[in-house]
Amino acid sequence: MTTTKKDIRKLSLEDLENHLTSTGEKSFRAKQIYEWLWKKNAHNFEDMTNLSKKLREELDNVFSIQNVRVDLMQKSNDGTIKNAVELHDGNVVESVLIPTEKRTTACVSSQVGCSLDCTFCATSRLKRMRNLTAAEIVDQVVIIDEESRNYFERPLSNIVFMGMGEPLLNYNEVMLAIRKITSPEGLNMSPRRITVSTSGIPKMIEKLADEDLKVKLAVSLHSAREEIRNTIMPFSSKFPLTDLMESLQYWYTKTKSRVTFEYIVWKGINDTKADIDALMKFCKRVPSKVNLIEYNSIDDGEYQQADSSAIDNYIETLERNGIVTKVRRSRGKDIDAACGQLANKSSE
Ligand code: SF4
After folding, report:
1. Which of 93, 95, 109, 116 to mutate to test the pocket of ligand 1 (most atoms within 8 A of CB)?
2. How would you classify the pairing of strands 69-75 and 63-64?
């Protein structure tokens, strides 16, 4: 339901202090409120028991707390959990908990839909409705952390910005969310456990490098041949691979953090020796590793996972050239939670 009250979590600590002092309250109350909002995950002002009743009522008159809620939770046979998360305005995004033996990873969304047009991705079929706020991103993480504790008896260990949307096109809110997730006043997670996964927007990668956030960077590459990449990801014709590489070299110079290339091998699209050689040469230009991701066909089946021999050829060539290569099995296929499958089907 839409509300006209301002979302209190859009205020910085300083904004909140200014608001409180302008109404005759002591400024230290702002820190207490902030802690309720960002650390204790309060859903209403009534819960803020170290504030006077009068202050809680005053806050409630002026502000709202626009928490998200899980509209539908689905559990896969392999333990993966997909949440259809309803936002305060009725929009829905999806986030996924991926459990493995050693880790629990949250795959979170950064936009409602996506403005980019990767032809293999189910999300690209949803129009981009709006960007998520930092609070809505943090809420997805908090929910998955709770699910991890409930179902797997351990806290969330990793976060990937690989759900719906292009995180670097919602830059400010994603940065704010990462700061809340990593700060002691927030969830206090290590930034090294957070991966920002982008489709590859050079100037935003450089901007991210300048932040000194200590997060990891993954790039959905899928082809190191310009003409093929432009077919798979049409928007990338605006960002030539030379510009992308320059931004990645800048990233490495500034952060000393190796880039991960996410790469799907499709039958008849990028499964030849020329494709493998192009990737190998591209990888050699910046410290990097490759994740070969298993593909999940989306309904019309235009894209098909390549034969295992093509994938073996990739692994053999890359490893022979000293490039660390991992095959990532997709998880949660039976509930459409796997990579490239997030399309709000659960809420249709
Ligand atoms: S792969 Fe990522 S960037 Fe491309 S359309 Fe899907 S959500 Fe958007």
Report:
1. 116
2. unpaired
In the reported structure, the alpha carbon of residue 112 is separated from the centroid of ligand 1 by a whole-number distance in angstroms of: 11
CB atoms within 10 A of CB 32: 14
C-alpha 163 to ligand 1 mean position (Å): 8
- Residue 5 sits at φ, ψ, to 5 deg, of -70, 150
261: enclosing H helix or E strand: strand 259-263
Contact 194, 177 (CB under 8 A): no
Written as one letter, the residue type at 303 is Y
Kindly give the number of the ligand 1 atom that is closest to the alpha carbon of 163.
Answer: 7
Give the pLDDT score at 121.
86
Sign of CA dihedral 53, 59, 60, 65: negative
| Atom 3 (ligand 1) nearest CA | 166
> Can you read off the two tokens belonging to residue 151?
């179902």
Collapse the DSSP code of 50 into the 3-class scheme (helix H, G, I; strand E, B; otherwise coil) and give the result: coil
Question: To the nearest 5 percent, what fractions of the chain are helix, strand and coil?
Answer: 40, 20, 40
pLDDT computed for residue 115 by the predictor: 86
Closest by CA to 295, choosing from 267, 323, 317, is 267
Q: What is the pLDDT of residue 337?
A: 67
Q: Are 92 and 84 in contact (CB under 8 A)?
A: yes
Question: Residues in the chain with pLDDT < 70?
Answer: 1-3, 299-301, 337-341, 343-348
Identity of the amino acid at 141: V
Residues with CB under 6 A from ligand 1: 114, 116, 118, 121, 123-124, 164-166, 199, 220
d(CA 136, CA 177): 9
Residues with catalytic roles: 94, 339
Inter-axis angle of helices 134-152 and 171-182, nearest 10: 40
Alpha-carbon distances, residue 35 vs 21, 25, 184, 216, 238 (angstroms):
18, 17, 10, 27, 43
Question: 10 Å Cβ neighbour count for 16?
Answer: 21
Looking at residue 345, its pLDDT comes to 64
Atom of ligand 1 nearest to the CA of 114: 8
